[in-house]
From TrEMBL:
This is Arsenite efflux membrane protein ArsB. It is a multi-pass membrane protein. It is found in: Cell membrane. PANTHER family: TRANSPORTER ARSB-RELATED. One of its GO terms (cellular component) is plasma membrane. One of its GO terms (molecular function) is arsenite transmembrane transporter activity. It comes from Micromonospora siamensis. GO terms for biological process: response to arsenic-containing substance.
Length: 425
């Protein structure tokens, strides 16, 4: 095993090869809890069994089951390859280097660090998309907390909250935005002008709640910290290869390359570097098998539920009303369904029952499915990826507090963004 692999194993809390089923090194909390299954493991198995049962028993017709799997395959490809990319990039020390630069820029001031983290996470989400933020920025924030000796959870929450609430402005910021922009036939600049006020409102509410719910309670005496020295990677060649892989991934997204293809090419480049320099780091469990099973089962189950009453329920929740009441109802429906079944199927289900040309309610539904998926770990793909990054790094997120503060943000940010949409219409 290379010195880099040994160092990475010590840095991340265990030996290389001690990998959890999600695709990352085993977390400290999991070592303490022994063999007890994580709740998301149970949910993933239940969804997989239920989804397979729906397809095999005919509850979901064979043609629809095949079409659902074909539709989700590009998503699974992206998910598998982007998690591998993030894992190997972290081992190469890229996230430690970025975290160090961010800490140095703050010059020891806690409030400045908060502002930099909020701005960085918002910009990453707007320009690159929320899943990229979850994959690439979560390890940066966790590395930053480790290097500064600060609690990791406030910085982690900054990533997951802004990955969702800052994903309204551009069509590329969220997969659901692409669907909505196509439905209402808006060019990117026109779409951005329409969503600028809701985006500002959502980010403002997020920043306020982040400070008071997560950052401020963690302040230490004087609110300062000591800036760390610049990070020196253990293997500069592998470090540069990982940086090149991340830049290639970002460039592919900006160029409009399908996200699955962009992540696959980038991961292949970094994998090739590890094959040459640190072959012992590579393990089959780097692939997030549990997430892949979870997403596949989720889509099969939701598709089946749509045939047996979910579509009717969505129509009832949305109601026939237009105007301000209809928009608020659409936003609330999107947020509620996202936390129950995930935001992608929630948006698709809502869009299917809204009349063509009902732009205000469609955009309000979009706000709910983008800003609202914060109260449950499975509410969005970005939240799922973020949760896996935290588990892989051994960071324990307090479940009750995560659910309570996430629900508070989902309600307040959705209301604020929908109100901004109505005021600027």
């Amino acid at each position: 095993m290379s010195p880099l692999a040994r160092r990475a194993g010590r840095r991340r809390g265990g030996r290389i090869g001690a990998v959890d089923p999600a695709g990352g090194p085993s977390a400290r909390t999991e070592r303490v809890s022994g063999c007890r299954a994580h709740p998301l493991d149970v949910v993933a198995v239940v969804l997989a069994v239920a989804g397979a049962g729906c397809a095999l028993t005919g509850l979901l017709p064979r043609a629809e089951a095949v079409a659902t799997v074909q539709r989700v395959l590009p998503l699974l490809l992206f998910l598998a390859t982007v998690v591998v990319l993030a894992e190997l990039t972290a081992v190469a020390g890229v996230f430690d280097a970025v975290a160090t630069r961010l800490a140095i820029a703050a010059r020891g001031r806690y409030a400045v660090l908060f502002g930099l983290c909020v701005g960085f996470a918002s910009l990453t989400t707007v320009v690159l998309n929320l899943d990229t933020t979850a994959v690439l920025l979560t390890p940066v924030m966790l590395a930053l907390a480790r290097r500064l000796g600060l609690p990791a959870v406030p910085l982690a929450m900054t990533t997951v909250w802004l990955a969702n609430t800052a994903s309204l402005l551009l069509p590329v910021s969220n997969l659901t935005n692409l669907l909505a922009a196509d439905r209402i036939d808006l060019a990117p600049l026109s779409y951005a002008a329409r969503m600028a006020a809701p985006q500002l409102a959502a980010v403002a509410v997020t920043a306020v709640l982040l400070w008071f719910c997560w950052w401020r309670p963690g302040r230490r005496g004087g609110g300062g910290f000591r800036s760390p020295p610049r990070h020196v990677p253990a293997d500069r060649w592998l470090y540069r290869t990982a940086v090149a892989g991340c830049l290639l991934f970002v460039a592919g997204i900006l160029a409009g390359v399908p996200i699955g293809l962009a992540s696959t090419v980038a991961a292949a480049l970094v994998l090739a570097g590890f094959l040459v320099r640190s072959r012992g780091t590579l393990r089959p469990a780097l692939v997030p098998w549990r997430l892949l099973v979870f997403v596949t089962g989720l889509f099969l189950v939701v598709q089946t539920l749509g045939r047996y009453g979910l579509d009717n329920l969505v129509g009832w929740l949305l109601g026939p009303d237009g105007g301000a009441l209809g928009a608020l109802r659409a936003g609330g429906t999107g947020a509620l369904l996202s936390n129950l079944v995930n935001n992608l199927p929630a948006y698709v289900a809502g869009e299917a029952v809204l009349p063509v040309g009902d732009e205000p309610r469609l955009l309000a539904l979009l706000i709910g499915t983008n800003v609202g998926p914060l109260a449950t770990p499975w509410a969005s793909l970005a939240t799922l990826i973020w949760y896996e990054r935290c588990r892989a790094a051994g960071v324990t997120v307090p479940t009750a507090r995560f659910l309570a503060t996430g629900a508070l943000l989902a309600v307040t940010a959705t209301l604020a963004a929908v109100a901004a949409l109505l005021l600027t219409s």
